[in-house]
Amino acid sequence: MHIQTIDNLVIHKVGNPSQNENLFLSNKTISLTEELNLLMSTYFSSAFQQTELYQFYNNVDLKFNVVYEISQLIFNNPNDFLNQSTAIAQHLFDNSNHPKIKGGELYIATFNDCMIDGVSCNALGIFKSENKDTFLKIFPDNDHLNVASDSGINIQKLDKGCIIFNVNGDTGYKVAVVDKTNKGSETVFWFEDFLRVKQIQNNYFQTEKAIEMCNSFVKNILPENFNVNKADQADLLKRSSDYLKGIDVFNFDELASSISDQEDVKESFIAYKATFESNVGYELEDNFEISETALKKKQKYLKSVIKLDKNFTIYIHGNTSLIEQNNAESGRKYYKFYFDNES
């Protein structure tokens, strides 16, 4: 994923109407020098380090997705960029009523010579800055150097953004999305209320969901149905991790066999797949190419770790037959470990 030269840029300011803040719309685009073009491109691209890709959607018809429709109009008629950018700003303003949403500058830009999944294309970017940093300015003052403070935007800290690549337009485009300021349910504002996007079901997505399914099954289903202790859970997570690391093409039946040698556990895992798919609202394919990027990012879900209160964290690397769990007469639990060498 790569963006390069900014072709058009306009900046609007979008407040929060619930806080009696206004919408300010610029009536012309910005003329960029080569240096400023490079700086702004760096600012816009700095936060896009993940490889999750999204696409616009609407439960009734894609044409009712506001940002998707405006994106189409801009791609089809670049000369109408300024006019359509105000429609984007108005749509964002209309969806900024939540009391936790901050007002800020809205940058809308078009790019040439972009690259996504090996395909060259143009792109539309929508970015929002909400937070300011304090900077020190050093300047000469007669016979000495003086210092003053100023407030501004750190070009290494983009708050919110999306880049809409002009490919797969019929199915909602390929869209990269970030929100660095809101977490949890608050991300609904940017992803759902404003953009209305869902993750594309590519190999990255499939690998990510397979890892999440293994983690959920081992940590939630096994203890409830098979009385599996933490040491055995750690062992099963390690088996899942070893399987995924050792293959190029995922096979669900192979994964089920790798998790446990017990037939009842394997059958339970196979049955859980349908439950997991229902919970996430997507179907997990039985075969797909493993995404190394997703595997690396989500590896934390498969860590074979036992956490004991707030005192100890134990990492299990194999052979759980060397671990025993017992209860002391005092009622407290303890683990016993067998080993040959201490390092």
Topology:
Elements: E1 5-14, E2 23-24, H1 34-45, E3 54-56, H2 66-76, H3 81-94, E4 104-116, E5 119-129, E6 133-141, E7 144-152, E8 160-165, E9 174-179, H4 188-195, E10 197-199, H5 203-226, H6 230-245, E11 249-251, H7 252-259, H8 263-280, E12 287-289, H9 292-297, E13 305-308, E14 312-315, E15 323-327, E16 333-337
Antiparallel strand pairs: 1-2, 1-4, 3-10, 4-5, 5-8, 6-7, 8-9, 11-12, 13-14, 15-16
What does this structure look like?
It is globular, with a radius of gyration of 26 Å. 30% of the residues are buried. The longest helix is centred in the middle third of the chain and has 24 residues, at 203-226. It has 343 residues and is an alpha+beta fold. It has two domains: 5-199, no CATH class; 203-337, no CATH class. It has helices at residues 34-45, 66-76, 81-94, 188-195, 203-226, 230-245, 252-259, 263-280, 292-297; strands at 5-14, 23-24, 54-56, 104-116, 119-129, 133-141, 144-152, 160-165, 174-179, 197-199, 249-251, 287-289, 305-308, 312-315, 323-327, 333-337.
